[in-house]
Amino acid sequence: MNKINIGLIGCGTVGSGVVKILKKNRELYQKKFNVQIAVKKICDKNPTIAQKLNLKKKIFTTRASDILLDPSIQIVVELIGGLHPAKEFILEALKQKKHVVTANKAVIAKYGTELFKYALRQKRNIYFETTVGAGVPIINAITEGLSSNRFTGLYGIINGTSNFILSEMSETLCTFSAALAKAQKCGYAESNPTLDINGMDAAHKLAVLVRIALGKTVALEQIHVEGITQISHDDIRYAKELGLVIKLLAIAKNVDGGIELRVHPTLIDEDHPLASVDGVFNAVFLQTDPLGDILIYGQGAGQMTAASGVVSDLINCATKGDRIAKIRTSSIAFEDRTVKLRKISQIETQFYIRFMAIDRPGVLSKITGILGKHGISIDSVNQKVQKKRFAVPVVMLTHRAKENQLRQALEKITNLSVVRSKPVAIRMENL
Ligand code: HSE
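A: This is the predicted complex of the input protein with L-homoserine.
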């Protein structure tokens, strides 16, 4: 029997889930993988955890060094989140020749390159399945299952909280804040939920995916990020009338030899498989060569789904970590210097535009005139009937338009005296 001692740094929601799974499935893992994973030490600020988890008090410590410097511990599980001291703990674990399992998307997104290079020098592994889609094996699929492929497009619903909010708003017509409160109560949201709704959580995850799928290190500043806070019930409803659904998508797309990286609310056809990914579910739609299109789907946030990802990493690391560390880490640390990024101003998509305009002759022609002057062709126009007819919502779909031209046109439209609200513009993807 292969006995592996692990040390857990951070034992909050996910860590407690990990302890529970290891306990519940101990015999299964012994029989199936011939491995016994023993929690040797747990480091946490909260001393009541031992009691809650029904564990001996002596395995708890408040000093991470008790784990990092313990020679009998082979795998360190970092679950404290945030950049510091998580990064330093990971580096120290590698220095002490331990493998690392982490669920920390922020640290992998920002310092991944440095950490993987150091892991390679130390001939150790960093497993990070839970950084994207919690326990849904997206990282594993890209790094192993799809290793023969090139990736030409990646479209992900990778923030469970925003997807939950958009689904709730669409299905139950509840308010944005009621849906957010429910997501927090279910344990889906980050401790700072702003990161979920402003798109940054999805951006961290996109940076991780781009690193492993394309071998490109990206700084968060290189990703164009918009969250879901500006999405209203009206937009969800008008989109539905057009046969479209609004999703917060993380996109990495190869266009003319350059990669577009963006996270923003996106309209997609209601018949596309991504459109039916609802609630806290995550999905990544990959366009690959030679395999073709593939969708990976499952619950992407929540205590036990995240803990399941961590335990799968532990099993992978415990059963084959030493043997494959060099080849695995070098493939993850691989940099493709030929990958170039495209700026958001260069992109071209169809747009949904909505604004409030005064309902009188000649108004629409002024607006369409501006769009025409900027080379933007209109696909459909719909003026919504309202009882109070002074200013009415106008919804337009454009044909494919250049981002910078659309922005210039919208600025001019906003300045028209007949337009009574700042136009809302949502990009559309034809997948
Ligand atoms: N807050 C994250 C989400 C949890 O909502 O997707 C999983 O990373």
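The radius of gyration is 24 Å. The mean pLDDT is 95.
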